[in-house]
Design a protein that fits this description.
The protein is α+β, with helices and mostly antiparallel strands. It has three helices and ten strands, in the order ααββββββββββα. β7 and β8 form a beta hairpin.
């Protein structure tokens, strides 16, 4: 009797159960997905955190900030929005910018370009893009702003630069996330197929 049980068990072990290949493929897909997903999320966050958490500076005055090489946007707070239930009320500030000058780490004035086609809304505060400039080297840059009244300003990566910088990271994260989900589906399907097969008699597995 015990010899027969051992023989049956040996037959089941030597037989490849349904679902095993699905589970192997699923695990490989999940591992590959994580390998792509984690760096993609970290890379995207690295660039987006500047836009989301860069401090607002009170102007008129000077903004001094250490920048990496890239393209940057200076935007001025022009309005704010307050929500009262389903109703939102906007309030304009009517600020005029008299002058805006940017100096590189060597103290030289930088050429500026129009940035009015870009805007940022953050926590109910609306910032209108004013100028864009290129930081050709890393270092401390100084932005001097003269306005008609007190307001706040942001110095962030330009939105165009952010799109170009984060596109590859978003694609990587998207592919990784998709691979992880597909892998999880295969693992679950394989698990239930294997569980069902183990419940069958050994002679029923011969067809697999």
């Amino acid at each position: 009797m015990f010899d027969q049980m051992r023989a049956d068990q040996s037959e089941m072990t030597s037989t490849r159960l349904p679902g095993e290949q699905q589970m192997r493929f699923g695990l490989l897909a999940m591992v590959a997905g994580v390998i792509l997903l984690v760096p993609g999320l970290i890379g995207s966050w690295f660039f987006l955190s500047d836009l989301l958490f860069s401090p607002a500076h009170t102007v008129p005055g000077a903004i001094e900030k250490t920048l990496d090489s890239g393209t940057y946007l200076v935007s001025i707070e022009t309005s704010s929005t307050n929500s009262y239930g389903p109703v939102s009320v906007g309030k304009g500030k009517g600020v005029r910018v008299f002058s805006l000058t940017v100096f590189n780490p060597a103290g030289d004035e930088i050429e500026l370009r129009d940035g009015s086609n870009q805007s940022i809304s953050r926590n109910g505060t609306n910032f209108s893009g004013y100028v864009v400039f290129d930081a050709k080297s890393s270092g401390e840059y100084t932005v001097v702003i003269e306005t008609s009244s007190e307001t706040t300003a942001l110095l962030t990566r330009s939105l165009t630069d952010l799109q170009l910088s984060t596109y590859g990271w978003f694609v990587m994260a998207g592919i990784g996330g998709t691979g992880f989900v597909v892998g999880a589906v295969f693992v679950l399907a394989g698990y239930f197929n294997r569980k069902s097969a183990l419940a069958r008699k050994p002679e029923d597995l011969a067809s697999y």
